[in-house]
Fold:
Amino acid sequence: MEHNQEHVEQKYGYGIYILVWMALIALTAITAAFAGINLGEITIATALVIASIKTYLVLTVFMHLNSESKTFKAFVGVAILFLLISFILLFSDYSFILRN
Amino acid sequence: MSVQEQTIAHVHRDDVGARMGMWLFLFTELILFGGMFILYSVYRYKYPEAFHLAAKELNTIIGTFNTAILLTSSLTMALSITAIQRSQKSLSIFFQFLTLVLALGFLINKYFEWSVKFHHGIYPGSETLLAKPSGDIIFFGLYYVMTGLHGLHVIIGMVLISVMMRFTAKGVITSDSYVKLESAGLYWHLVDIIWIFLYPLFYLIT
Amino acid sequence: MSETLTVPINGKHPSYLEYQGKHKGLLGWILSTDHKRIGILYMVSILSFFMVGVTFGFLMRLELIAPGRTIMGPQTYNSFFTLHGVIMIFLFVIPGIPAIFGNFFLPILIGAKDVAFPRLNLFSWYLYIIGGCLAILSIILPGGPADTGWTFYIPYSVRTGSNVIPALMAAFVLGFSSILTGLNFVTTVHRLRAPGMTWFKMPLSIWSFYATAWVQVLATPIIGITLLLVVIERVFGVGIFDPSLGGDPVLYQHLFWIYSHPAVYIMILPAMGVVSEIIPVFARRTIFGYKFIAMSSIAIALFGSLVWAHHMFTVGMSDTAQFVFSLLTMVVAIPSAIKVFNWTATLYKGSIDLSTPLLFVLAFIFQFTIGGLTGVMQGVLSIDIMVHDTSFIVAHFHYVMFGGTGFGLFAALHYWFPKMFGKMYNQKVSKTAFWILFVGFQTLYFPMFIMGWLGMPRRYYDYLPEFHSYHLISTIGSWILITGVLIMFSNLIQALRKGKRITEKNPWGGETLEWKIETPPIHENFIDIPTITEAPYEYKQNEDTVLTDKEAK
Structure:
């Protein structure tokens, strides 16, 4: 009895991948160009936001997260949340140390 | 149930379970690198000027080029899966091979980047580096460790993909059974994602 | 993965002990992907390393029986407390219950034939053995065993000439063993539950193993990378944590404890799962508050990941961090307390059967409560400033890790032994061993609370004469405890060799799936995968004894 492929319909033809790839390249170009403009904190924040968008695209399209069950999406959420919270709590130490 | 029925061998297959296992493994890799990103962010907070200046020593053009290479390799990996889904075996193998070539290109660029630095005397434990301010030492320490470990994962990915190429050629991976290729693809995309974050944090903070 | 049901001989399926697969003899064990055999492999290796850890502890207590040098010099003492910690934590308590009993019983408890990734499971055990060998290597290589404490704090861990690198590599490899086990368990619970077994029909130990598995997967990589970075720093002089190169030693501590605090929940959650399994059986009552206990396992895993810096209250963190972590530490005690209340409520007016498993469980509740409450005390900043790095802390964590998890493991051993081996041990001897263990435990560790409070530092080779009587009592306690350990293990080993054979499926009267299958289980666990219709622990309840809300408070 083969209960193997609860497999997803093939939503992903060649076209969608190429489209996403072009978006990724474009976003990279934007980040690089933007880096030339020195706006201090905003530059790095923008770079990170763009990196997050690129990651989102890779996760949902290339890694097929969009067509997986809710469980998988919850898993990814939990992992990212763990990292984020560790980050934030750690900075509760470093951001608030009084410096002489 | 009769004894005869019970002795029939049957293959248990769970593709969803296999992918689930791979995602869980990817989380461990994500957090492994996440730990290093935590390190990076604390030290950047402590040494903003030093990081800003030290980053100028890195070659932004090669870094950007490498980013494009890796993004393209993710594309070819995804395309290889679509190909095998459509029973286009040779095309799938070709895309996997392209992925390998791009990965190799990435590593070669890295090699050049590193050798230029070494040539200038900037490597862990070198006198030149130790003479620089603390922030620089930390920046380059993080640079070498993070890109080094990332490079190691690129190599591991290449080995995985080579194995998948062989499986595809031998008919182990088919249009009916390709979860192995998907899993290798997942691993490769994570390697790409890590670089997506490494790139701006090291090359674009000038 | 091939699933051939074995051919019965004379109508009877061979047990997993007798089963002959592709390999025979010893190879049939060390190459087996049967989760039950892997559980036994872990049992032998984990309990062996436990005895090594006990030996280090015994010798440490011998040194501390009187001030000044007794049997060893200070350098040796430093290595001993390091090794005692590394072995007990990474080779005994963390793998302990999940690797032995999780592996053996998790698939059975959910009605599955094996875990999701049986070959990965075997690989996890190989990693465990490799890690163990690396730890032993760190003892015997020239350079001497590591003397940094199991915490490997910077900067000493990058300065000392002792065998830090093999010790760190051991921890790294053992970390991966833990990660792969966790990964396996999460996937198994999601994918392989029997038909009808919804999440809220799972036995409570599965909830515990599941929550533990998530912590194993998410938290362990942090210490993996941290220890790897220390190795890299030692070898290449890179400049990551070392303050002379611009690094921050406190950052090391943050990263270290981001894993090592959740690690203690990896240690305690499975033991709590065992307690939740045993109490209904020996009180002959449905567990009180099933959903609360299930949810509290998740809550403990969640909140336990947020409190790590309470190990760092004296290093000079910001006031904000001190406040935040102290508050979160208070919060994490709540789900644990919920469990204790629910267990107690289950026992109240139950039909108590004081068999050996229940004795260990009762001791668990007593000791975990003491350990847990002293933990909450330490969460209070003004108290922790005084007791940090004293014997008070040592007593606290031994009460929870040994008095809690250790006794939980002993409880599991005595509960599941008949099912695993088809033999019964001498219960008079096991109860005697229990009482000796219990008395020995309090004698060994309680004085540490007092002398810690009075100022006795931890990890100190020598001490002021005013602490002598406490140390003397404590060392005598260690002798009593070890006597109990030896009696307990020899009783069980004796049972294995010459004990009464039993084939009864359900010697204790349990209600979970393992008590419905053969004793010992057959290779595939089940002839037919059952369909689940009932919630677990469905004992007949005496209407009069059902607690009203008022009584429960």
